[in-house]
User: Fold this.
Amino acid sequence: MTTVTPSPRPSEAPTGPRGTGSRGTKVLGGAALVGLALTIVYGLFISPPDAQLGETIRIIYMHVPTVVVAYVSFIITAVSSAMYLWKRTEFWDLLGSSAAEIGVVFFAVTIVDGALWGKITWGVFWRWEPRLTTSAVLLLMYIGYLAVRAIPADTRTRATRSAVIGLVAVVNVPIVHKAVDWWRGLHQGRTVLSTIDPEMGGTQLFAMYASLATGLVVFAWLLIHRFRTAYLTERAADVGLDDAIAQRQAEGAEK
Amino acid sequence: MSTTGYIVLAWVVTFGGIGGYAAAVIRRGRKLSAQVAPERRRWM
Assistant:
């Protein structure tokens, strides 16, 4: 019979590197800080106002990178969901859920930035037009994904449920993306996965690419940290289970 | 609010929202790593 020894309490836990950082995340974090500095300097101060968008282009420097990261996150969630249903390994489950959470944060920021841009351009924060409506549905679907993960269940059931939702929800990504082509609405034409405004050049183009590249570096850095946090959450739950088993064994030995 | 006000607000929302989330993730990771022995932090 195997005996489970109680895990150390936090105060007596063996010393080791604290947190979820590593050499790789430090390199990514450093690159992100350089990118953020360039984005601020070029996006807010050096880049001139756009001929059509005027000063509001400075909101686009935030709006486009955040939506690109959100799309990438949701696609990673879908791929991880498919891989989980095939391989049934913890790695794909944690990667998918980590990417989904980051995607929700970035997409929520995208919607708020868009609303602020809309207030300047249209005079209102929100219109129930195709791009905005499909975006709201997309955000709600991924909030639903995270809500389902919060429902108490064994890890396998939770992973299977969320993997199915992760595969269904991603169908809405191309719908949001193509909404401006398929239906007439207020929102301007596609910027993401289209040629960035051909009239954009010089420091405007640099500011746009700098913010886009920075957004992707920040995403990579965040995804690694979030995945490791999810992994630690699972291991910490194991520790609690080990402690409970050890306690029961000790009680049994006393009788 | 002026156009400049909305632009500044958009940048504050972006940096504040993502920065706040990142800080929460890092803080949670540090807290959890204190509960898990180093040999169990293999990240798979």
